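Re: [ENG-882] Designed sequences occasionally contain unexpected residues at chain ends

Forwarding the minimal case from QA. C-alpha cells:
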C-alpha cells in the first residue's frame, strides 16, 4: 500500500489552479518561501551546483526558487494537476527541473536500482502532516541523502496554539487557506519527529520555528517551535 492519503491528494488537486497566484490559496507559501529558501540556502552552504530533491513539491514554488539559485532540482509529488502546473511554469521561466509523479518510497527503489548518485540537499516542506506514515518518508529521505548531505523537514506542532493560529486563524478568520486544509490530529510534536529521525539514523542539528504577523504579512524565525517549525538534519555520525 502506497504511503498516500487520497483525501489529502484531492485537497491539493482542487487548489491546483491557484498555485502560482500570490493572492490565491497558496498565498501563505508565497509569503513564506523567501524565508525558507534563505534558510535552506544558508544552512546547506549554498545551493549553487548542488543536487537537490524536493519531496512533496506540489506546484513547484520551492523547487523553482532553488533552481534559480543554481541547484539541479528533482521535484516529486503524488498529485497530477499541481505537477502539470509545476512543469508548465518552470518551462515558461526557462528552468530545467525534473518533476516526477511518484512517492518517495518508489523513487528510492528506482534510484537504488539504477545506482543513481544521492542528493546533497533534500527538502520536505509541509508534507509530513499529510501522509499516513511519516516515518517511512523520513527513512526514505535518509537513504537518498549523501553522507555529508543536509535534510530539511518543516511541519506543524500539535499544540493548542497551532490549532488556534493555523486552523482557526489562517483557515477560518483570515481565510488565508481553504477550510479543511489541515487536520489537528495529524500535526507532529517535535519530540515525535526527533524520535522518528533517531530511528532513521538522522541527527537534528537545528530546529527553529517560523512565525507570521498578519498585519505586516511577514514571516520570521526564532527558537519558539510551538507552532510551525523546521528541522535541519544530517546523518548520524
Amino acid at each position: 500500500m502506497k504511503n498516500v492519503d487520497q483525501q489529502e491528494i484531492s485537497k491539493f488537486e482542487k487548489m491546483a489552479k491557484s498555485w502560482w497566484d500570490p493572492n490565491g490559496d497558496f498565498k501563505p507559501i508565497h509569503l513564506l518561501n523567501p524565508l525558507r529558501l534563505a534558510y535552506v540556502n544558508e544552512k546547506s552552504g549554498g545551493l549553487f551546483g548542488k543536487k537537490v530533491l524536493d519531496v512533496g513539491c506540489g506546484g513547484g514554488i520551492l523547487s523553482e526558487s532553488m533552481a534559480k539559485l543554481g541547484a539541479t532540482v528533482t521535484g516529486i509529488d503524488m498529485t497530477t494537476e499541481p505537477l502539470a502546473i509545476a512543469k508548465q511554469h518552470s518551462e515558461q521561466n526557462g528552468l530545467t527541473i525534473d518533476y516526477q509523479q511518484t512517492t518517495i518510497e518508489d523513487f528510492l527503489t528506482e534510484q537504488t536500482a539504477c545506482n543513481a548518485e544521492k542528493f546533497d540537499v533534500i527538502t520536505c516542506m509541509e508534507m509530513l502532516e499529510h501522509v499516513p506514515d511519516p516515518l517511512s518518508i523520513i527513512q526514505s529521505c535518509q537513504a537518498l541523502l549523501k553522507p555529508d548531505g543536509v535534510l530539511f523537514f518543516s511541519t506543524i506542532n500539535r499544540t493548542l496554539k497551532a490549532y488556534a493560529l493555523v486552523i482557526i486563524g489562517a483557515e477560518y478568520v483570515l481565510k488565508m487557506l481553504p477550510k479543511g486544509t489541515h487536520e489537528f490530529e495529524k500535526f507532529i510534536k517535535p519530540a515525535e519527529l526527533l524520535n522518528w529521525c533517531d530511528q532513521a539514523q538522522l541527527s537534528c542539528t537545528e530546529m527553529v520555528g517560523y512565525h507570521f504577523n498578519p498585519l505586516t504579512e511577514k514571516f520570521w524565525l526564532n527558537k519558539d517551535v510551538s507552532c510551525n517549525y523546521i528541522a535541519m538534519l544530517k546523518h548520524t555520525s
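QA comment: On inspection the terminal residues look reasonable. The longest helix spans residues 27-43. Proposing we downgrade this to a documentation issue.
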